[in-house]
Amino acid sequence: MLALKPCGGFLCLSIFVISCSEHSMMEKSSLDADAENEALDNMVDQQLRIDILPNSTDNDLMPQSIYLDPDTDQLTGLELKLNQTIWLTGQVQGFELFPHTETTPPGSIVPVASQIVISKSQSIAGGVFSSDENGVFSIPIPADTEYQMTVSPLAPSELPFFVSESLDLLNSQETNLELGFGLPVYGTITGLGEWAPMVDVQLIDAHTGIKGAPQALDSQGRFMLRAPSDRPDLQLRLQSSNDEWACPTINLPFRLEPEQQSAHEITLEMGDLNMVEVTGRIFQSDGSRFYDRADIRFTSLDLTDLQGALTVESSNDGEGDFSVTLLPGSWHAEFIPPFGDDFSAAPIEFNFEVPENETDFLLGDINLRSKVRIVGQVANHNGAPEAAVIVSLKEQSFKNYVYSVTTDPEGRFELMAPSVRYDTTLTPSLGNSAITHFSIPAPEDGQDIQWILQEGQPVQGVVKNLGDPVSYAMIEIWNGEKKLADSITSEDGSFSLRIQTDE
Amino acid sequence: MTTFFKLMNNWHSFCSIVFMMPACLYVGPIEEVEINAPPTILWSDPPQDEEMVLSSEENIALVVVTDSNDTEALEFRWWVSGQSDEIGTAEISVGINNTKSSKVILPADENLDGNRLYFTVIDSYLESKQRSWDIVYEGGN
Known about the structure:
heterodimer; A: 503 residues; mainly beta; four-stranded antiparallel β-sheet; four-stranded mixed β-sheet; disordered N terminus; B: 141 residues; 1 helix; 8 strands
């Protein structure tokens, strides 16, 4: 059983910002960015994106995305040519300095061990890479334009992170990155007591979500980070670095003016937290104790007098008992038994309140439900029963487990699964039907379900690298954030599937 | 050949004596005997005898199988040694030429280091094929 120790206290949030932060400007800037993103999403939604993930034995090839416009491009007879891999090499350097006041002493240039993230909007190209201890990096990436690159210093970490939002990488190149001085962001988090070193602080770029390296508070709750001077809208994130310690994650937004030269101070006062030990016991649906190990997850919905969010994960002991330490407020509880045919128990979820001014709270008996029998029949778009259709039910919540079965020659299927909401995928093996996606509410026990496959639209072609077929590569077809279909290329690099055209 | 004709001679003699016929004739119903072909693992990533390296946030293991009994249901199971329950997030897709593939995504979890990842495909005749890989944690960036 997981024992949770409380983090520091009731948040009497008082943030002293020495540099003026103009929220109106920040909000306008955020709104502009949101509008731009929405326009970009709408534009991209009209396109099909084909993600190609070559297998790991094709060391020379990297995952990448290819775009098609269904209105103008043929979707059959495709020849998808992969971009060649280029190498981005170089060294990260920075100024080692440790200013704890606004006085900034001159530093010396040192190599900086860093984490380097390369990404491309609406594409799977890129990845997360680490330099060596001398800041030297060598990154393989498919040749393309408009990459984003971020560099987060790890050692020394008291340096600004680096962001490049438009980077064309069409040929192998060597680039030495200079992180610069940045602007100091410093302050003190009080009220954490001896737990202060278990809290990390981290700077986050508000527009891109790019994160700097986390840094632990010192024993006095002090921190000193360096923000990039060209990223005005930032957040300071506080979060526990210890899984067994219940401390909420808090984001504090702030703004650095473009002309700002002075340091930025953030001070946070935390009082005593009222930690409550929440206990209970898990039972099977037949009333017997639950002796297997369930995953137990509590997610805060609204913490009393506290900003931030907190998720606490635990499990029961061999008698079905559990005990966790939570903060007062509204919580969402999930009890998730193990996956597999050997387990008949199904997960449950509910909301509850942890009271204030209490030290103990009995959540009581948790009665798991049983799986239900889900039966039905799948027909093609002509109404004829369709055999050999893979029916996949993916939980919308809990741990997103996937329950699968294949239809028999009469198109019928039957499986045991929890009665929860599912994202459903029907994948035909035969005939001319599309891979069909839809969501369903929690099915009832024995309810006879009738599903119809869409006719859809064929997408067929071959993946090639310098004229040679790319075998056993994963193919995923997306429309915006929605995955329409996936498959594997055959040995000769070919693929053939049908995608859904209607909701 | 001599032995064969001797045996045939004995068989003819037996039928002539017992049934008063020059040969034995089977007149019962003929039943079709279905011979199952077990599933075949065509390809896997990681390949056989290589390691499952956990080096990024999401680490994919993929197996492509085929089965000449094309309408039978194949079941795919994944699990990690030392863990009591199956991996519940495996996803299946269909390729051309009657191939199916199953993939799981493992997190960069240091606790998995030194364990073994197992994959089994089972057909409706309960014939199966298995593949497994040692898990090596190299740090998730």
